[in-house]
Amino acid sequence: MDKEKIEELKIQMHKRLNEAQEFIQQVPPIQLYAAIGVVLFTTFLFTIIRLFKRKSANTVVLTGLSGSGKTVLFYQLRDGSPHQGTVTSMEPNEGTFVLHSETTKKGKVKPVHLVDFPGHSRLRTKLDDFLPQAAAIIFVVDAVEFLPNCRAASEFLYDILTKANVVKKKIPLLLLCNKVDKITAHTKDFIRKQLEKEM
Ligand SMILES: Nc1nc2c(ncn2[C@@H]2O[C@H](COP(=O)(O)OP(=O)(O)OP(=O)(O)O)[C@@H](O)[C@H]2O)c(=O)[nH]1
Ligand SMILES: [Mg+2]
């Protein structure tokens, strides 16, 4: 019974194939080439669009030594108010949102994908996972406790600036001197000069 059905199906398939072949032979070759051309062109167009979409990265990576204030800054940018009582992060903190300062703006505002990457030295290799999508890097420095950490900060900064992804894509980097609300904070010019000297 089953064998009979399979045979019947085979015969039907052969019939349809023959019909298709006859139909293709009847179609003028120009029409056939035009149809193939349209299919190829559409595929090419979709591939290009997908490639461009991937390139338009909107990720901003917050990085810097542990305790420099990245997590506080992340919440400040998202909610407008600092979250007190942050502890050393052991996992990247990320989110896509419209910056709090832009929520009151009229017109079209684009959301950003912000990544707060922990400063713990053991996690540094994981930073490479985020850099390929980065549109910009913010390197946060503690302006109060700067001198004891100057060497470590400059080594970390040098490490980032010489990464193949950063060099090749020319990813812009902003040096952010944090905790300037304290009177003992060093000036941005002093911090920049010291970092340049160390490097
Ligand atoms: N005075 C002052 N203190 C700040 C500021 N930003 C952060 N802090 C304090 O700095 C400490 C560390 O802040 P975090 O945001 O947790 O530091 P982090 O860079 O995320 O540290 P890791 O997660 O270990 O990489 C906290 O006690 C914050 O309250 C600031 O602008 N001014
Ligand atoms: Mg943190």
UniProtKB/TrEMBL annotation:
One of its GO terms (biological process) is intracellular protein transport. GO terms for cellular component: endoplasmic reticulum membrane; Golgi apparatus. GO terms for molecular function: GTP binding; GTPase activity. It is found in: Endoplasmic reticulum membrane. It is a single-pass membrane protein. Its main location: endoplasmic reticulum. Keywords: Endoplasmic reticulum, ER-Golgi transport, GTP-binding, Lipoprotein, Membrane, Myristate, Nucleotide-binding, Protein transport, Receptor, Transmembrane, Transmembrane helix, Transport. CDD domains: SR_beta. It comes from the Eukaryota. It holds the Pfam family SRPRB. The chain crosses the membrane at residues 30-52. Belongs to the SRP receptor beta subunit family. This is Signal recognition particle receptor subunit beta. It comes from Olea europaea subsp. europaea.
